[in-house]
Amino acid sequence: MSAEGASSSQDKPELPSGFTWFRMLAANYTGMITDEEREIFNNVAKARYDASQCKSCESYRNFNLKWSPIINFMKDNIEKLGGEVDPRNIECVKCTETVAGGFNPDHGIMICQNWVQSKTHVEDTIAHELIHMYDELKFNVDWFNLKHHACSEVRASNLSGECRMMNQIVRYRQFKFVRAHQECVRRRAILSVTGNPNCKDKEEAARVVDQVWDSCFNDTRPFDEIYP
């Protein structure tokens, strides 16, 4: 669904000139810097780091929109339903919550630039959120209905590729091989539903995910089968 605590715009404070920044950098490392200069230095360093994250995120997004097979497949199917997928509704933002991205029916997809780790991570994140977008258009999802939300989360984690074996080993440090894909899908769906404002706790989220599991895990639309 959507993730709160994200800024939808990138702050761009005025940066010092190259010489001034070099002087402040040297002063900071030697300790010969005033408190006022240190505050400016820290703010500018943070702004530059945020801008660098945003640039990398947008580069990964643009690459995947052009070259990713799964994203282009989802893009085609969303457009058949009257939707639109382009950089204007897939935005890189800084998030305060530990999430890779989110989907809002009114605003589109956000990628959390400070949490995504690689080009492949951005691909999985966009694919996950595009499945939510597809479900919104195809099934008119009520995101505050826990069963609706749970079903779309099961489908998104199942079909996006984020629960493929290599991701579980490298990204999630999960080394179980028997029913690993199913357990990953269930775990991630429960985590997402727990964040729904209408969900009381993790136990309720687990019950709802189990209730919709069979029908939603086996519903691979618009794919013929699970994306490898």
From TrEMBL:
Superkingdom in the source lineage: Eukaryota
Chief place of localization: mitochondrion
Keywords tagged on the record: Hydrolase, Membrane, Metal-binding, Metalloprotease, Mitochondrion, Mitochondrion inner membrane, Protease
An annotated Gene Ontology molecular function: peptidase activity
Subcellular location: Mitochondrion inner membrane
Enzyme Commission number(s) from the entry: 3.4.24.-
Membrane topology: Peripheral membrane protein
InterPro entries: Peptidase_M76_ATP23
Role played: Has a dual role in the assembly of mitochondrial ATPase.
Protein family (similarity comment): Belongs to the peptidase M76 family.
Name of the protein described by the UniProt record: Mitochondrial inner membrane protease ATP23
Organism in which the protein naturally occurs: Myxozyma melibiosi
